[in-house]
Fold these 3 entries.
Entry 1:
Amino acid sequence: MNKAKLRGFNRSLPMSLLRAREAVMKKFAPSLKEHNLSAQQWRVIRALKEEDGLDMSELSERCYLLMPSLSRIVQNLVVRGLVVRKLVEGDQRRSAIVITDEGIKLFNIIAPKSAERYEYIAEKFGPGKLELLYELLDELVEKIDE
Amino acid sequence: MNKAKLRGFNRSLPMSLLRAREAVMKKFAPSLKEHNLSAQQWRVIRALKEEDGLDMSELSERCYLLMPSLSRIVQNLVVRGLVVRKLVEGDQRRSAIVITDEGIKLFNIIAPKSAERYEYIAEKFGPGKLELLYELLDELVEKIDE
DNA sequence: TTATTATGCATAACATGTTAACTAAATTTA
DNA sequence: TAAATTTAGTTAACATGTTATGCATAATAA
């Protein structure tokens, strides 16, 4: 479906990246929506599962979320009992964000499905091409940021 | 800057695509912001410059904007006098969106700068790699949508 | 022709993206 | 030490993303 060659302005880098991202996200969305998680909320949980107790600034960098968005997202996750805030001794400005047992439980339910989807994509597309794509994307960012 | 190898979950397709897109967008943002245009508003204007008088559904597809977003965006552009709505004879549900002279004038101011930025990126990255990237992205979308 | 369904589009409601204040705590400077 | 500055984080305000709902007009079935 929708195989028509891209015309004019639609064949642009931002649009192509957007389309690719949306196509990929569609594969991951269902298992997240099942648990009422947005892609952004899921990013925060994964980041904390990888390294717990990060402060907001660290979390913001790792999840590629701006502070205002992250602030609201963490509030939401706190209300849902998936993470908690803890005081950082020695600096009253910071707060460490810690994943709860319930958060970990949720992670353990979703992560396998997510990995499965990822494997599916990698296989469909070809692992070699996938690696090549990563490298091109990294290099693009690198070259642009000069 | 920020050259640390991506760890863990940050090396994922959605994240890499997001980073690349943001890096690219940053190059185009300034000339748009100069005229108080968002990337989305600019997409609509470009689409209409390419083919005028599209209805909302067509515009939605070509700009990769969902109808609710597009609805608000067009309202904004109408207020600013950059486009107008015209009745479609034979179907009272549709409305044709038409770019105004002022809209065209704005396009003619921004488009050259935009093209310039694009050339810069293509040159920095390498035209061959850019073409390869396009092809990989297209193929990724194609393979995923099955 | 009337009832039903489909289409085109708008609005509602809420999460996120984005820029700009703003607060309080920590650090630096004078 | 007092004042200025920096840092970490929140809140405000508005545009957009996203799903659901509503509402006409059009097309179709009965």
Entry 2:
Amino acid sequence: MRERLESLILQTAADLLAEAGDSEPLAGVTVEAPRQQEHGDFATNAAMVLTKRLRKSPREIAATLIERLGTGDGLIDRAEIAGPGFVNVWLAGGQWHDVLDRILRAGADFGRSDEGKDRKVQVEFVSANPTGPLSVGHGRQAILGDCVARLLEATGWSVVREYYFNNGGRQMRVLGDSVRARYLEQLGKAAAPPLDALQDAEADWPETLDGLPVVFPRDGYQGDYIGEIAAAIRDREGEGWLEEPGEGGFRQEAETRIFADIRRTLDSIGIAFDVYFNENGLYDAGEIDRVLDDLRASGLVYDEDGATWLRASELGLGRDRVIVKSSGEPTYLLPDIAYHREKFGRGFETIIDVQGADHKDQGPYVKAGVQALGHDPDQIEFLFHEFVTLSSDGHTVKQSTRKATFITIDELLADIGVDVFRYFMIERRAQSHLDFDLDLAKEKDWTRNPAYSLQYTHARTFGIERQAEERGVAMPTPEEVDTTRLALPEELELVKKLGEFPEVVSRAASSREPHHIVYYLREVTGLFNPYYQDKDRHEILTEDEGLTRARLGLTLAVRSVMAAGLRLLGMTAPERM
RNA sequence: GCCCCCGUAGCUCAGUCGGAUAGAGCAUCGGUUUCCUAAACCGAGGGUCGCAAGUUCGAGUCUUGCCGGGGGCGCCA
């Protein structure tokens, strides 16, 4: 309906330009629902935009526009000039009734669209290396990536969720060494380093302690999970692994167990990846070498100080970057470029990389790399999110993966549950810092919790249904709802808000901003709860069967939108709370 | 020093393509319940949209500078 009105207005405005001999295309004209209800159902700035080009006053143009629009084939009830030259349009009453009818007929599909046209998009997120449990920071990225993927699915894209990981390299060696050290300590063959030495990088590091060697790496992983993995190995192997290198069985065992934990955590917050992509696959397939050769052929690579450099400064970037160290080992950048070329090879039209703020200025280098290889860098989108800071008792809790002072998703879930977790992780837009109050999170009394109130609005529609059943009233089918019976302003306002849902989904999907869904659902809740509550004006279950069916229809429409919205957020939509 | 993000009500944050009187939740204060679930609703107070210029019919929104907070500027990933 908005589309119909919009095209009508755009066409009329274009006609006015054409008649004035101006053949340039029309730009900047909007048709939107105004904030104030008194400003009509829709408002357009067309008259003000055309002022210069038609060399007439906005109000004069507005008057012409209104005259030309007329009733717009029955779409328009009336139109008025307002303020500096807005044209406010009120739709004919029946239009809103049609909207409700469409929502009811669409049911669970309302809000979905095919604008993605089944094009392939990849969303890569989390991508944490298997060195430890997922932290709350990973949680934000996980929920953000998943919700973006859900939005894209709802708008007709063919989505692949992907997790990229690296199980080689220095990090993993340190991990294996850390496990091995704990294993030796548990068998009494080594001494644990003192706590103060672990916590202070400047402190003295003992070679031996009480006659036992200290084998724990100075920069080792300190979390309890390391000791647990070591204990599992000890229980199974006894002293059989005394000669096993950290890089061997210990590293492997740690990776297997940690990855299993990560997957279980992801599963527990409702996330399933389609692809787990191992960086090693790129080496095995010879992709790294091929990319290096191709980059050399592009002339954007040179050798200096024994290392190989990407001439990124030539592509407008800050500085050149090393892609192969003088040791012959590639830096992260080379496999990253190779990985992205591989993504292009899989035919994705759009590639979305969800990453933390600390990766912000690396994106351009990856883009520069793929551009040098002949791909369109604009097909890659980086979606950066700022950090999650945790606070407790008014103080920020310091987090460090290595020192294991971070709060894991698992710990938080035990306190607040998946739905509340997902809600708080997605409520704010990605580029805002997320200050997560642990005390609030651990507070059991969630009666003031906005996550809860969204779910409750959905549950309330079932409460109404149960109440209706008790009175022997069945929920109506779309055919049984005579939408014209809904005439109260608050009912039309609610219908109007529900009708915006597809647009909200579309905008949230194309801007990759799932938080819009949250705020929209809060608005629906904010209209439906008072409507339900104000029993003096409008009980839903009345003596009038037709009116009751219409209001139950409205209730069902609210249910559809709330259910669809909650599903986009990955939250459950309970029937009873 | 350079680059990126943020700065909006007491707190935490929304604010669509630049649009009319800047919103929500929480908190505070006052009220509402023989009722379709009070896990609710109604009302009130609370704003120099960090500061200053600029762009224009119009700026929380765009540009520049400054201030404050966060992140990044490795042959780490």
Entry 3:
Amino acid sequence: MQRTQFGEMACSIARTWGVIGEPWSALIVRDIWVGIRRFDQLQADLGISRKVLTERLNHLVECDVLERRPYGARPRFEYHLTQKGTELLDVLMSMVRWGDHWLSGEAGPPVLYRHHACGQIAEVDPRCSSCGEPMHADDVDVLPGPGAAR
Amino acid sequence: MQRTQFGEMACSIARTWGVIGEPWSALIVRDIWVGIRRFDQLQADLGISRKVLTERLNHLVECDVLERRPYGARPRFEYHLTQKGTELLDVLMSMVRWGDHWLSGEAGPPVLYRHHACGQIAEVDPRCSSCGEPMHADDVDVLPGPGAAR
DNA sequence: CGCACTTAGTTCCTTGAGGGAACCCTTAAT
DNA sequence: ATTAAGGGTTCCCTCAAGGAACTAAGTGCG
């Protein structure tokens, strides 16, 4: 747990932070995305403390981002993404885009994405759900919504 | 500073985390986006400790996400988004979308975005930069890139 | 001039989360 | 009966977060 409860704030950024804002959480979701699903595998891949890994996994399961699923005959468990968790990957993919652009340096991006639909190496482009044109922060007015505070 | 240096990892998610992964950083960027640019305004709006605010602002300036800009005659400063910082807002907007969908509850989203191009209330939709079709995590193959480790 | 006010930090102290290592428990194979 | 693997717990130490008080530079006012 972080000191501050971001999840309580009337802001979707803060609330999202309440789910994956703690250190390691985003990387755990990434690992599970690419098929690293078991406790020991995660611990080895990330080099995270087992204590913290336990806390993060429990929190992500509580938040309904991950699902703890038994496998095999013995009491063994794997973690899988829920629908909610799968949609969270859109956020991670936009982080990948930004990191690829601004933080890769000479070496170039660590991974590439090939889009099934067109077969091209590509990246995510944020577009308007209504008209399909590019939609960046400068392209919108921010208005109070129904769930606004006071 | 976090205990672990995420910025050193060969992963754009981890590297992005190295820039905005510390508690409060994303909300500071959000505030500056909506026009809250001065130290005391930020401190009052967020309810963050002044010490931590100083640390976060310095870090974001070092990472070239924010720019410290004097205003008026006296030694007073405002923080502004750089180009790098502005592009980071794409990540925040995708967090908004996910938070709006999954964490808003009955009340509905706290804020709405009106797209300049079409005038509609809309949200960001991740699309392929190559073909323009929807591009989510399930729609891609992940391949090693030129900057991959070993 | 002297004082208060504003803005932007800095310093100090306490608490609690992160990291690491060692330990525990269940089931199965030898 | 012993060992190994998987999946955690427990314990301790350190260091960052939070909060409150203090500093410092420049301005306006009486």
